[in-house]
Amino acid sequence: IAVSVGIIFFAGIDVLTGSQTELEISEFDFKPAAVVAGFLVAYVLVMPLLGFLVSTMVFMPVVLYYSNIHSKLLLAVLSI
Fold first, then answer.
1. Which among 47, 74, 43 has a CA at the least distance from the CA of 59?
2. pTM for the whole structure
3. Please, are residues 75 and 51 in contact by the beta-carbon 8 Å criterion?
4. For residue range 59-70, what is the model confidence (pLDDT) as tens digits?
């Protein structure tokens, strides 16, 4: 409930201040978001077969590596 109240409060402030910020949709690259969404769908589909722990230990390094985290130690630590 507190999060909802906070969102409504800050949205109201944003509307009242009238600051206009525009994001050009053409500037946004949808490919990385689509790839991560594909990884997430695959993760959800594989989870019943491999179980939560194993599928998470496979999913995390793949997503982290795709996010340009190439340290093998960091990948291992964050995946466990």
1. 43
2. 0.61
3. no
4. 999 999 998 988
Cβ atoms within 10 A of the Cβ of 26, count?
6
Q: Is 39 within 8 Å of 62 (Cβ atoms)?
A: yes
61 in Cβ contact with 79 (< 8 Å): yes
3-state secondary structure 2-16: HHHHHHHHHHHHHHH
Instruction: Tell me the residue ranges of DSSP E strands in the chain.
Output: none
User: Considering only CA atoms, which of 30, 32, 46, 40 is closest in space to residue 60?
Assistant: 40
**Position 77: which residue type?**
V
* Three-class secondary structure of residue 44 per DSSP: helix
